[in-house]
Amino acid sequence: MMISNDTALMAHLLRRAGFGATRNELEEYLALGYEGAVEALLHPSEPNNMPDDLIRRYHVEQSELRDLPGSAAYWMYRMVTTSCPLEEKTALFWHGLFATGYAKLNQARSLLNQVDMFRRSGMGSFEDLLVDLSKDPAMIVWLDNNENHGEAINENYGRELLELFSMGIGNYTEDDIKECSRAFTGWTLGNAEYMSIRAAKDSIWPYGRIAWHFDYRDEDHDDGEKTFLGETGNFNGEDIIAIIAKQESTAQFVATRLFQFFAADEITEFGDKAIQAMMATYFSSGYEIRDMLRTLFNSDYFKSEEARYARVKNPVEMVVGAIRMAGSYQNPALGIENVSRNMLFMGQGLLQPPTVEGWHEGSEWIDSGALVERVNFVAKELSNVKSPGVRSIIDRLEADADAGVLDPVGLADGCLDLLGPIEVSEATRFVLVEYAARQGDLDLKGHQQGDEAEQRVGNMLRLVAATREYQLA
Predict the structure, then answer these.
(1) What residue ranges do the domains of the chain occupy?
(2) CB within 8 A of 60, min separation 6: which ones?
(3) Containing H/E element for 183?
(4) Of 98, 121, 379, 473, which is the most buried if we count CB atoms within 10 A?
(5) Dihedral of CA 26/29/31/35: which sign?
(6) pTM summary value
(7) Distance CA 366, CA 363 (A)
(8) pLDDT tens per residue, range 32-80
(9) What is the pLDDT of residues 359-414, one digit of tens each?
(10) Is 408:8 a contact under the CB 8 Å cutoff?
(11) Is residue 322 within 8 Å of residue 70, measured between CB atoms?
């Protein structure tokens, strides 16, 4: 199967900067040219996602968004229907890196507020993002900064800010953690005390299920002199973050994590050159994530054959990509909660990372149980010939066929092309062609919804979903 390099490269970009693309979407981006497509992705406009009033008409629980299933489903609707995929993909990246979970918070609205913050700030300055994160109520409760007082520090947030969110182990001392934590005393919730008193009387929830807000309490802040990473002053939280942001180790940390999420699970010598270029951009741009991603997407590494299919799709990418390809859930449907639950069975529950470390990614997404869930979900979505996206694939296959008739090679190659295009090994392609050949040529002339000809296409799409290559991005 011959695929033009422009088409294959654009499909690769849209798998990484989004959730894959239908053929119509791919052609729209191809009309912009590669660099034009990169810029369009990096500068999201109106997302045109499913409006809240329509969602709430069918999902009462998504009016308040207090519980976990409805809130995860609400984000699913946004990812499935947005016309700004990189905005959602970046929010998902930060959700995994700055992992904050429902299990402790018992407050999903604040988690979704955090995701909104990732949309607003996630492609801007990393320094500004860390300030926003430090003021985020969900993070404050998740890592106990509401228990961090001038007279008695709590080190949880200070430790993870350095270890997991910015610099990485080995680039600071235990004293730096203490001094960092002192600087964040007084950064707390504005409504914590009132709600804790009320909650003790009539609620099982420690602060009540209301949307928290940030409050800075000067009287609870340690304003004494602090020494952090070799600098001394009466530092507050913003000062600490300014020092963190200018560290070489921070540039290395951010560039590496962006690379592993958007480019490849493993870092080769060629890939490391892209990371070094991203680090240079980190400093030259004033810590701008958007500029770092531009450097990555336009790098020789990212455009190379080595970078293609170098990542295992995470469950959200698998599920959202399949739904967008099939064209399902474009209108409210009660099954959306089951979809988000399916991702949990695959190992990635939205709004419920297992620990503050987030999810272990790459090949760890695949085990015997998770693989069955992945294949079954995608196979079901892509074989449903009633779905508009699948119907579009069938219509394109008919239009591209000679007089509406496809031989086994044409059926296999056509499905691989319209689902990606997806490049597969000769062994995989042999199996697909052999399967198609069992029933001979496929005549799509005059096909009707759900007839035998269409079911043959659905079965081929189902089989492609089970290939090793489909599990990769």
Answers:
(1) 315-471
(2) none
(3) helix 174-183
(4) 98
(5) negative
(6) 0.94
(7) 6
(8) 999 999 999 999 999 999 999 999 999 988 888 888 999 999 999 999 9
(9) 999 999 999 899 999 999 999 999 999 999 999 999 999 998 888 899 999 999 99
(10) no
(11) no
